[in-house]
Amino acid sequence: MSVSVWVVRALLALALLGVGYVIVSISIGEGGPQPASIGGINEVQQLYGGLSEDAAYAGDDEAPVTVTVFNDLQCSECAAFQVESIDPLVEPYVRPGEARLELIHLSVTQRMLTLTALASTAAGQQDRQWQYADLFARNFESFGETVDEQELQSVADSVPQFEVPAWEAALDDEEVRQIIEADAQLAIDFELGDEPGVVVEGPGGTEELLASPSAEEIAAAIEAVG
Q: How confident is the model over 159-175, as pLDDT tens digits?
């Protein structure tokens, strides 16, 4: 897969989003991209392996509470938010069926459209979006904000029971681009700024935590609306 193909894909998604983002540079270095070493595979599998996943969702679809996570996987603070604030919710709430997670992609700055959102959403076509997203977040420091296609493919190669050719095909899927467009609009509707946010909805109401809430704050919201 050539770098130019990834640029075209990003431009197509950008046009659909209708926003003035500037594509982040794709740094491949002299001599072309080198395979990335992916860490955290066992940890991610322990967390998300065996959970029901459906596109953007992880957890039982009959769970009384939905935790909608707005995040930009291609930013340092946001990657840390995924690991520090969202992952701790899986064992006490998601695995027992008390809550399910929904991932909504946004860009926290107007300087880039993240190719990671495209790659992660495409993984959702195989119901592996949360595993892909969490693996990427755990390896963000080694990738940096200028991610290249080799690094994104290395993450795909590390997701268990994942069909990489099907994922590559999904990168060009119209449905994937429509999902990204809808995600961007939803983030606008909630007036999200330059950091991750969470909306927790259950039978007891809805709580909006739109400024990088901690795991403890999200857990309290789950308890309040559940």
A: 999 999 999 999 999 99
